[in-house]
């Protein structure tokens, strides 16, 4: 007799906890701001920034143009795909078979390739591409400013040690627009005709973007007024992140965790597609150049806090990320074990 055991529903066994997440006002005194950012990165690897300086008109043009694109028939959207790795993708996340109730557009940050790609995305490609490139430039400036504040707050001698990694034209940063359909949309949004009867059921907790940490240095995330994002400060505990279209959320990525020798946490997060309105998020992932060699800053390594991770290049780390499934803890693969004593300073 074959006994079929239903897989445990991870979502049902979780604890949802409301937490007041840190809010950083960038117009406040610099010495206060840098202290609060360091604390937020240590406690949560996550915080909200207000008075961030990313122009509102650019944000609303990117949002309007993206929503018009995602509202198009699937066959038209597919003209901007597949995402290999840039362009339109639907449900498939990454290269290891992960799936979610999400469709997306991914771009590199080169204005020329954005302009080229925009021709298959927008009916007003110049308007779309200049808004996307404008958003990316403002997000990069903001990420550099936050990384400089982090350098100052950690009292490292070279305060631009982090921002320098993402400033150059060879930085491997990417920009991603995610669209999570609303609950009423029972049609399979990846197909032109609804062939499956309930491919998107009204199940209250559909995973839009599964649990993961971001591999890069820092992520800046902005969404419309629809919630769904959750962070996990500890295993099995999820904290809902309230939507605030006027603010940006910042999360520490794996590289920053490695460079601070584990002092900052690369926060695990996910997005649920469980609203009656569709969620649109835009994420700028600040990454180094492929050949950047990444390791804990000497100031972060002490006899009490020995080096946690082996040095790696961004190309190596990216390759490892692509070879694993979304939720895998990749940084663990670079952890120094007691057999690796020779890596110690
Ligand atoms: O849409 C969101 O809120 C989360 C998106 C995300 O985690 C990602 O794009 O990596």
TrEMBL record:
It catalyses: gibberellin A1 + 2-oxoglutarate + O2 = gibberellin A8 + succinate + CO2. Pathway: Hormone biosynthesis; Plant hormone biosynthesis; gibberellin biosynthesis. Its EC number is 1.14.11.13. The keyword Oxidoreductase applies. Transmembrane segments: none annotated. The keyword Transferase does not apply. One of its GO terms (molecular function) is gibberellin 2-beta-dioxygenase activity. Pfam families: 2OG-FeII_Oxy (PF03171), DIOX_N (PF14226). Keywords: Dioxygenase, Iron, Metal-binding, Oxidoreductase. It comes from the Eukaryota. Residues 170-288 form the Fe2OG dioxygenase domain. Belongs to the iron/ascorbate-dependent oxidoreductase family. GA2OX subfamily. This is gibberellin 2beta-dioxygenase.
């Amino acid at each position: 007799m074959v006994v079929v055991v239903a897989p445990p529903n991870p979502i049902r066994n979780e604890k949802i906890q409301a937490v007041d997440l840190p809010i950083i006002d960038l117009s406040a005194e610099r010495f206060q701001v840098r202290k609060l950012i360091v604390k937020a990165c240590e406690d949560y690897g996550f915080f909200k920034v207000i008075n961030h300086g990313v122009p509102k008109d650019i944000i609303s043009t990117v949002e309007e143009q993206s929503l018009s694109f995602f509202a198009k028939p699937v066959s038209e959207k597919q003209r901007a795909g597949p995402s290999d790795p840039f362009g339109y993708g639907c449900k498939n996340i990454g290269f290891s078979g992960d799936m979610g109730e999400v469709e997306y557009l991914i771009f590199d940050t080169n204005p020329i390739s954005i302009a080229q790609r925009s021709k298959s995305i927008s009916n007003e490609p110049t308007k779309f591409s200049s808004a996307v490139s404008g958003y990316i430039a403002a997000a990069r400036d903001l990420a550099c400013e936050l990384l400089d504040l982090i350098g100052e707050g950690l009292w490292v001698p070279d305060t631009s040690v982090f921002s320098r990694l993402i400033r150059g034209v060879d930085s491997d940063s990417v920009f991603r627009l995610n669209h999570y359909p609303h609950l009423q949309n029972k049609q399979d949004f990846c197909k032109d005709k609804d062939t499956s009867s309930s491919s998107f059921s009204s199940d209250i907790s559909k995973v839009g973007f599964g649990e993961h940490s971001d591999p890069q240095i820092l992520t800046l995330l902005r969404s419309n007024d629809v919630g769904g994002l959750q962070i996990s400060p500890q295993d099995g505990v999820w904290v809902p992140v309230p939507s605030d279209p006027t603010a940006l959320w910042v999360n520490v990525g794996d590289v920053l965790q490695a460079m601070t020798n584990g002092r900052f946490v690369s926060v695990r997060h996910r997005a649920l597609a469980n609203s009656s309105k569709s969620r649109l998020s835009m994420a700028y992932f600040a990454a180094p150049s492929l050949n950047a060699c990444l390791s804990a800053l000497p100031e972060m390594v002490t006899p009490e806090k020995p080096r946690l991770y082996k040095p790696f290049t961004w190309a190596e780390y990216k390759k490892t990320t692509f070879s694993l499934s979304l939720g895998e803890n990749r940084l663990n693969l670079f952890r120094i074990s007691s057999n690796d004593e020779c890596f110690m300073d």
